[in-house]
What we know:
Blueprint: E1 15-23, H1 26-29, E2 33-35, E3 51-59, E4 64-65, E5 67-71, E6 76-81, E7 86-91, E8 109-113, E9 119-121, E10 126-127, E11 131-132, E12 136-144, E13 151-155, H2 156-160, E14 162-167
Parallel strand pairs: 1-8, 1-14
Antiparallel strand pairs: 2-9, 3-12, 4-14, 5-13, 6-9, 6-12, 7-8, 7-10, 7-11
Amino acid sequence: MTSAKPARLEEGEILAIRLKVRELTPEAFAPYGEVSEPTKGFRLDFAGQTASFCHVRIEERPLHLYFLARHMFTTQAYVPLGGGESVLVVAPPSDLLDTEAVPDLSQIAAFRMRGDRSINLHRGTWHRTPMPLGPAADFMVLDREGTLDDLDLVDLRVNLSATIEIDL
Length: 168
């Protein structure tokens, strides 16, 4: 976890919040979603609409975040392929009826996905697409077809005067 931004920032100043990467366990991830374990799956919610199941390759990128997103109406699952490690940054869901909601940065966390467990994000969980720790990582992404139309995106710099940096 991290602490909330200081009460006073100078005009135009951006707070860089540094997150330590935590191990991905069902207990630690519970505020954000579910973690698969052998013989224990999770239930997906696609709001009664057609499911989408697609293979994505995510290229390595800096471990620095300017944006977070949430899906307002559905869950979203990431199933790692090939065992590559990634970092997933999440914040708990905000009020789904509040279109002006922003992530609670005092509850933001970074988790190491080692490639042996899948995750299912709760509806409204703020997140960033997993960030590979190698050149690339492959995932099967399970969500509602056309899920980008329920995507709520927040610019952390504009809305919260903050950015997120990951410490491995």
